[in-house]
Amino acid sequence: MPQAAVDGISLFYERHGAGEPVLLIQGMSGTHLAWGEAFMAGLGDELDVVAYDHRGVGESTPESDPFTIVRLADDAAGLLDALGWDSAHVLGISMGGMVAQELALRHPQRIRTLTLGCTYPGGAEARLADPALIQELAGALLSGDRERALRTGFVANLSAAHIADEANWEPFEAMATAVPVAVSVIMLQMQAVMGHDTSARLSSIEAPTLVVHGTEDRMLPVVNGELIARSIPHARLELLEGVGHMFWWEQPERSAALVRSHVLGA
Length: 266
What we know:
CATH class: Alpha Beta
Number of strands: 8
CATH architecture: 3-Layer(aba) Sandwich
Radius of gyration: 17 Å
Helix content: 40-55%
Distance between the termini: 32 Å
């Protein structure tokens, strides 16, 4: 299994296709499998796509010490080094979008294009999930009941229309259980998210930027995407009506087409 040595740790990754280099950065509790087969297929074979697992996740090096979003951004930069990529097109979603923001700010020369999905900039105007939802998710995670935790995450991350079709549950469950993420690591990721704030620095990002957000996002409400798009010069905002937090999972073909167009049009 492909492993990249990055600053004393090892990051597991999968690689598909050939062409323009594209780095995919997952969100909290996400693994390389969380992109889904339909989205990955939609990116096509004409892009050199790498999806990896954060420290503490999957086959990457276990982690028990606190870390920051900045630390995760430096991991991503180290992965680019290990891949031999001077620069890449970067897509980050949710927590991964926060990592991508810091990557673009700390290593601007490494970014060909930037796509930020369902993410959060921090600062006074930004909004996290409703406290009641956060409490519900935390309670489910800490209950030790895996079925309850998965069902709660399914409802929180996807739109009402998607949840209503029971056929959508099985592929989500299969993805989430194939590479389980330890609750302790998810809590460390949550701690990192709470310390994230790029709001005063986003205006310095020069990379062509696409911002994608579902209008029914309960985890990180759509106001965050609107705020990010206003803050980054010349950023383009794509709002997906009636779509929840995991927009690429609900609408994989459309989401992949947006990313492809942004990458190949740069």
